[in-house]
Amino acid sequence: MPANGGAETADVLIVGGGSAGAVLANRLSADPAHTVLLVEGGPAYASDQYPASLRDPARVGDDVEHDWGLTATIDDTGRVIRTPRGKVLGGSSAVNAAVALRARADDFEKWAAHGATGWSFEEVLETYRALENTPDGDPQLRGRSGPFPVRLRTRAELTPSLRAFVDASAAQGFARLDDPNGTQQNGVTPYPLNVVNEVRQNTGLVYLTDEIRRRPNLTIWGRTTVDRVLFDRTTATGIVTLDGQVLRAGEVVLSAGTYGSAGILMRSGIGPAADLGRHGIEVVSDLPVGRRFQDHPFYYNIYALKPDANAMSPAAGAIVWTRSAEAVGDELDLHISATHLADPGISPTGGAMVLATAVTQPDSIGSVSLRSRDPKDGLAINLNFLAEPRDRRRMIEGVQISRRIGRDAAMAAVVDSELTPGPDVRDDAALEQVIRQQLDTYQHPTSTAPMGGDDDLWSVVDSVGNVRGVSRLRVVDASIMPRVPSTAPNVTTIMLAEHIARTSML
User: Fold this and answer.
1) pTM of the predicted model as reported, rounded to 2 decimal places
2) Cis link prior to 314 (omega < 30° from 0)?
3) Which segments of the chain belong to CATH 3.50.50.60?
């Protein structure tokens, strides 16, 4: 990149090379007239140099070498848990469970209720199709030639216990689905995954191929952590890295993720004025960054498998996606995810199966704030799970459904015993206590810088990611979702970046 007074210069500087940033780097550098600089806090591996830990879809959340090391308070008990986020080119798409489920029309209707325009399901369907390549489903709904591969697990690929889960769920009354990215999601189905030949296809691989990286107007810097955005009054002019380097740009785009982008915004003077003042940060724009944060609460119902049915690969297999007794409108607010994403050592038989329940349309709102002005101190993350009574009731209902599936006759041939919550947990009060003790995150954080209309007091950005009160600064990642969607947000994050690039940046 050309030097300018000792600082690097680009037309667009993208902070974060994950599920959104890699997409933007690809799309924006397609115009040779514009220079694009992508800076990523983790390593920027060449496409043939990703280590086995990142290629293996059975490795989820345990790769400390490629993690930001964040922790969070889970609820009002004060219990602290890890909240893994990918620190590598490809971001969390390189370390997640590779679930490739789209958000639903109901999710986008809820976005619209916050004043986010241009995001109806009808308006984003073509973008979903354009990003995807899959042999599955109706070609009127599914994409055949996009960069992002999606493959629906076949029944033959599932382990015996995952097949039993599908059969047991059907026996419990859940419809068998042919394509959960089609017109129906209420039922049981094998997972669609961005996995090909048992290799996790992260955005660093599929959007930043060797050919894309050779573009002369695209530069990618790995191991470059960003401290803050630079401003001339209220105009963004570049960024400052953790080691003090100044990088100038015509426009700055934060794609550092729900946590990363929120932290950069607040350290830059964009956030709640009272919070920033406590850290001695001059306010550039008083906005509610981190105040409408959401994630999905997640509880693990675990079974030991019989010795003759203890196969655990492939790890991610099938899901029940359905509505609770308290679901509103068309929402599907419960997931029961069947996987082998567990240490086999926890099982006395050497094989384990996890039926994990999530409340996917939570009422509870968490928060993200700065611990200090120093980015090395991390963030104060409060998940605030199950704070609202309806969330608690729905979680209990979901675990009850999970246990009914686990006890169905179809599971008898593969299940040895229930490990958690365990056979001694029988009534709702005991079940709620165990859930609170063992609750975890689905690792689906969103909404720390949400989109919204001019009359939405909680919005941080407009409907195409422009930060309110300043110019030449956007946020484009899961942090701008007005609320968490009812499924894993990774594919929707990719779609969001594609959609904003196509509709307002190209």
Assistant:
1) 0.97
2) yes
3) 3-71+80-101+200-293+446-505
CATH code for the part of the protein at 3-71+80-101+200-293+446-505? 3.50.50.60
Q: Name the β-bridge partners of 188.
A: 176, 320
Compute how many other C-beta atoms are within 10 angstroms of the C-beta atom of residue 273: 13
Q: Give the strand pairing for 71-73 and 226-232.
A: unpaired
* Domain 154-190+297-361+386-438: CATH architecture, name and number where available: 2-Layer Sandwich (3.30)
Residue 437 neighbours by CB under 8 Å, 6+ apart = none
Summarised one tens digit per residue, pLDDT across range 441-465 is 999 999 999 999 999 999 999 999 9
Which residues are annotated as catalytic? 444
Q: Do residues 129 and 114 lie in contact, with contact meaning Cβ atoms separated by under 8 Å?
A: no
Range(s) of the chain covered by CATH 3.30.410.40: 154-190+297-361+386-438
Give CA 300 to chain center in angstroms: 19
Question: Which stretches of 231-351 are DSSP H helices?
Answer: 257-267, 273-278
Closest CA to 21 of 479, 391, 462, 415: 479
Whose tokens are 């959340």? That residue is 61
How far apart CA 494 and CA 320 sit, in angstroms, is 24
Q: Tell how strand 235-241 and strand 246-254 pair up.
A: antiparallel
180-232 confidence digits (pLDDT tens): 999 999 999 999 999 999 999 999 999 999 999 999 999 999 999 999 999 99
Where do we find the tokens 């086995």? 52
The beta-strand segments (E) located in 202-263 are 218-221, 226-232, 235-241, 246-254
